[in-house]
Design a protein that fits this description.
With 539 residues, the protein is α/β, with parallel strands linked by helices. 38% of the residues lie in helices and 22% in strands. It contains 19 helices and 23 strands. A hairpin with a 5-residue loop joins β22 and β23. About 1% of the residues have low confidence. The structure holds glutamine (GLN). Pathway: Pyrimidine metabolism; CTP biosynthesis via de novo pathway; CTP from UDP: step 2/2.
């Protein structure tokens, strides 16, 4: 199933694809999703979250588009390296083959060599699934997405009508002055798609008002899409309503009929539970998110969603208050007054770092529940170390010459270690990113252990710096609990403050594994602690 977008970007193609994936999965089909990004970067790993939103990390350690996060939140299939590729990656593969002589002297061209490589990558990623949904990034009409569109046109032909399906997502704008929904941009966008040889089978029309029947007829007439396959996708207050909305529109039935798939009816009970929990909150809390990209919430997409999931699982309305950490660099951080919990997310770069340390300090001193993720754990450690007398404690990422490098590259703090072999093993990794899912051992008797309810957990990483074990003894004596260690016991993964009712920092990113149906123990625990604080402790 190929999904393209028309008229404007940001229509929610990723959410629509993921939601359709969820309904098909509810019909007991094995679904996978693949995102093709037309930009030249090899992957979004180096792209600014300002421009591109968060970098999502898969279990197998790929840095991917944030749409893969939506996919994993909606379907049970685990995404990996193969589920996201860019123009840059395709060209890299082709150029490598050309250098190797694989093309036997042929002139290497966009058609067939680039399009063949795109098709190969799609089929490889689709392998093993009943239905593969292939989402093409960008909007029809963009120059850069043309090779992708040509490749899916070819693949559609090769697979034939029973095995390939084209869905086009468009916008039906509402003109308030005339009180009308307008279909013209959709007509043009489908015309554009047909001019490159793709006839959509299904149109998903995003609109703020329900589509009147007459308008569906008109769209169907102009685009040669069956009337029944002109689907309306209304704006919703939560993305988790979209699976049931699309199901009510009969989208899964249309897809299964076209593919002649005989499946049970969709069992959406898991999703209905999510919706009913969302509609029945019993309390509300304010969570301060102290970060850098405050004006652009896509930069923290998975954390925002994980907080919403925690709200679902604790029946709590979670209001996220974005605070620019630079605003906290003054001695009296007044903006932290009316909040019930503080979250410091991951991050890179020095800007606002002292403000993040202040946020950890404020939480520590005022018994405010604190969740520090990755950099958020590192700043909590820095604050703790400063408090117990290591006044100049810092991370070497920000202060390379600090006399107390409590956070540093592994290669910087293992040089005195007696175990040479281990040192070499880590020295290599020290300069690169620790990426992807890894096991972590939790200590019995810690808060984190109680939350997860098990000893071995598996969480995803994306960072270079680590807690410096040379400070372990000193900080432990002062009350820092090392609640989680890497599988080999050498790296600190979770810290807790034993003098505080709920203060946890984790080196991994729990937000990447939180889903609306299952939630996540750390986030649910955090929101329960925020509720308790709001009720019993808040001044
Ligand atoms: N910049 C820190 C590091 O590389 C933290 C990274 C993160 O928060 N994802 O270790």
């Amino acid at each position: 199933m190929f999904i393209t977008g028309g008229v404007v970007s940001s229509l929610g193609k990723g959410i629509a694809s993921a939601s359709l994936g969820a309904i098909l999965e509810a019909r007991q089909l094995k679904v996978t999703l693949i995102k093709l990004d037309p930009y030249i970067n090899l992957d979004p790993g180096t792209m600014s979250p300002f421009q591109h939103g968060e970098v999502f990390v898969t279990d197998d350690g790929a840095e991917t588009d944030l749409d893969l996060g939506h996919y994993e939140r909606f379907v049970r299939t685990t995404m990996g390296q193969a589920n996201n590729f860019t123009t840059g990656r395709i060209y890299e593969n082709v150029i490598r083959k050309e250098r190797r002589g694989d093309y036997l002297g042929a002139t290497v061209q966009v058609i067939p060599h680039i399009t063949d490589e795109i098709k190969r990558c799609i089929l490889e990623a689709a392998d093993g699934a009943d239905v593969a949904m292939v989402e093409i990034g960008g909007t029809v009409g963009d120059i850069e997405s043309l090779p992708f569109l040509e490749a899916i046109r070819q693949l559609g032909g090769e697979l034939g009508h029973e095995r390939a399906l084209f869905i086009h997502l468009t916008l039906i704008p509402y003109i308030p002055t005339s009180g009308e929904l307008k279909s013209k941009p959709t007509q043009h966008s489908v015309k554009e798609l047909r001019s490159i040889g793709i006839q959509p089978d299904i149109l998903i029309c995003r609109s703020s008002q329900p589509l009147p029947l007459g308008l569906r007829d008109k769209i169907s007439l102009f685009t040669s899409v069956d009337k029944a396959a002109v689907i309306s996708m209304l704006d919703a207050d939560s993305i988790y309503r979209i699976p049931s909305l699309l199901h009510q529109e009969g989208l899964d039935k249309i897809v299964c009929d076209k593919f002649q798939l005989n499946t049970p009816l969709a069992d959406l009970s898991g999703w209905e539970k999510v919706l009913s929990a969302m509609d029945n909150h019993t309390a509300s809390v304010n969570v301060a998110m102290v970060g850098k990209y405050t004006e652009l919430t896509d930069a923290y997409k998975s954390i925002n969603e994980a907080l919403i999931h925690a709200g679902i699982h604790t029946r709590t309305q979670v209001n996220i208050i974005y605070i620019d950490s630079e605003d906290l660099e003054t001695p009296e951080p007044g903006c932290l007054k009316n909040i019930d919990a503080i979250l410091v997310p991951g991050g890179f770069g020095e800007r606002g770092i002292e403000g993040k340390i202040c946020a950890a300090q404020f939480a520590r001193e005022n018994n405010v529940p604190y969740l520090g993720i990755c950099l958020g754990m590192q700043v909590a450690v820095i604050d703790f170390a400063r408090e117990i007398g290591l006044e100049k404690a810092h991370s070497t990422e920000f202060e390379p010459n600090t006399p107390a490098p409590v956070i540093a590259l592994i290669s910087e703090w293992t040089t005195d270690s007696g175990d040479l072999e281990q040192r070499d093993e880590y020295a290599d990794k020290g300069g690169t990113m620790r990426l992807g899912g890894q096991n972590c051992h939790l200590m019995r008797g810690t808060k984190t252990y109680d939350l997860y309810g098990k000893e071995i957990i598996h969480e995803r990483h994306r960072h270079r710096y680590e807690f410096n074990n040379n400070y372990m003894g000193m900080l432990r004596q002062a009350g820092l609990v090392f609640a989680g260690l890497s599988a080999d016991g050498n790296l600190v993964e979770v810290v807790e403050n034993s003098h505080h009712p709920w203060f946890i920092g984790c080196q991994f990113h729990p937000e990447f594994t939180s889903t609306p149906r299952d939630g996540h123990p750390l986030f649910s625990g955090f929101i329960r602690a925020a509720r308790a604080y709001a009720k019993e402790m808040k001044p």
